[in-house]
């Protein structure tokens, strides 16, 4: 029987639940005819597209998931042109209750199984909380919180059974602080960071990586889509490219880092947010996030 770290860890640490090597081999045998895949939700543009490119370049079979068929087809063509490898694509709205089944079926069709899940798809809402419609708030919670939680819950048991794979959840620098003028978005990212760190602790030593990525501003269409392009943070805070963020995320994930903060400026910003009191930082964020800092 091959060397299995999880089995030896459970023998060395008797307080851990015993691990049955036969169960691990049975779980792996169940997918022996399939290839492991990295699934990136929101892989049709921005950070998700860059993450998909990174995983393809690292030799992983990669699957991108998004709702818009045309954009998905463009992304497949772009990734093929950039890497020489055509990724699999799955058309799916991850807020649908059966999204995990749709993704599983798409993988099975391509003779793949879910090895690494990148929960990247997300949406933002800019402006005062009371200006957000209940419908938009529900959509934000559905994508950023409910879907991510459901997909994570659906994916983890098989990964743990195989003692392989992992989950990379895309949070944000906004996870570390309340964000007046993007209140629901910032709160949703705090949820993602908290959930991910907690799950990472629960499954430690079981052969599965669980990480959160907390990027600062990144140059994507995300800010324009939520009408925040003229906010002060877009003008004065340095932005990273999606490729830079993706490379940092990939490296951190492979090293098993639980929380990945891309860039030195963002790392310093996180330290400042942890050290300074909210009485100072929350009004500062309110100014940075105001939708139209310089009114015309
Ligand atoms: N950009 C930043 O500055 C920044 C900073 C920190 C964290 N983040 C986080 O990073 C992630 C990606 O951001 P981004 O800037 O790359 O965003 P983006 O350019 O707006 O891309 C979002 C992607 O998610 C997909 N998507 C949205 N809703 C979906 C749904 N219900 N089902 C399936 N796919 C869906 C979109 O495709 P379709 O519309 O075709 O579905 C698109 O591919 C988000 O979670 C965001 O919160 C971004």
UniProtKB/TrEMBL annotation:
Keyword Transmembrane among record annotations: yes
Keyword terms, alphabetized: Membrane, Oxidoreductase, Transmembrane, Transmembrane helix
Membrane-spanning intervals of the chain: 264-289
Stretches assigned to the Ketoreductase domain: 36-216
Molecular functions per Gene Ontology: oxidoreductase activity
SUPFAM superfamilies documented for this protein: NAD(P)-binding Rossmann-fold domains
Pfam families the UniProt entry points to: adh_short (PF00106)
GO-annotated cellular components: membrane
Family under the similarity heading: Belongs to the short-chain dehydrogenases/reductases (SDR) family.
PANTHER family hit by this protein: DEHYDROGENASE/REDUCTASE SDR FAMILY MEMBER 7B (PTHR44196), SHORT-CHAIN DEHYDROGENASE-RELATED (PTHR44196:SF2)
Protein's UniProt name: Short-chain dehydrogenase/reductase SDR
Upper classification of the organism: Bacteria, Pseudomonadati, Pseudomonadota, Alphaproteobacteria, Hyphomicrobiales
């Amino acid at each position: 029987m091959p060397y299995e770290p999880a089995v030896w860890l459970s023998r060395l640490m008797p307080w851990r639940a015993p691990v049955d090597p036969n169960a691990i081999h049975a779980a792996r045998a169940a997918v022996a005819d399939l290839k492991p895949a990295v699934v990136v939700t929101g892989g049709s543009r921005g950070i998700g597209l860059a993450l998909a490119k990174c995983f393809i370049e690292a030799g992983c079979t990669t699957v991108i998931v998004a709702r818009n068929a045309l954009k998905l087809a463009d992304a497949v063509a772009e990734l093929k042109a950039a890497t020489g490898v055509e990724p699999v694509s799955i058309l799916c709205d991850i807020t649908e209750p059966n999204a995990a089944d749709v993704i599983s079926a798409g993988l099975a069709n391509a003779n793949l199984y879910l090895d690494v899940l990148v929960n990247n798809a997300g949406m933002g809402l800019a402006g005062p909380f009371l200006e957000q419609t209940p419908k938009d708030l529900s959509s934000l919670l559905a994508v950023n919180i409910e879907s991510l939680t459901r997909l994570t819950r659906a994916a983890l048991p098989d990964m743990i059974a195989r003692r392989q794979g992992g989950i990379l959840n895309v949070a944000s620098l906004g996870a570390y602080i309340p964000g007046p003028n993007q209140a629901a978005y910032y709160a949703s990212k705090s949820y993602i960071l908290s959930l991910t760190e907690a799950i990472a602790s629960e499954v430690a030593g079981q052969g599965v990586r669980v990480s959160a990525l907390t990027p600062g501003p990144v140059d994507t269409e995300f800010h324009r889509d939520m009408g925040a392009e003229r906010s002060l943070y877009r003008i004065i805070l340095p932005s990273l490219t999606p490729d830079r963020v993706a490379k940092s995320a990939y490296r951190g994930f492979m090293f098993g880092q639980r929380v990945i903060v891309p860039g030195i400026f963002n790392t310093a910003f996180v330290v400042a947010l942890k050290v300074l009191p909210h009485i100072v930082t929350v009004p500062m964020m309110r100014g940075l996030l105001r939708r139209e800092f310089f009114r015309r």
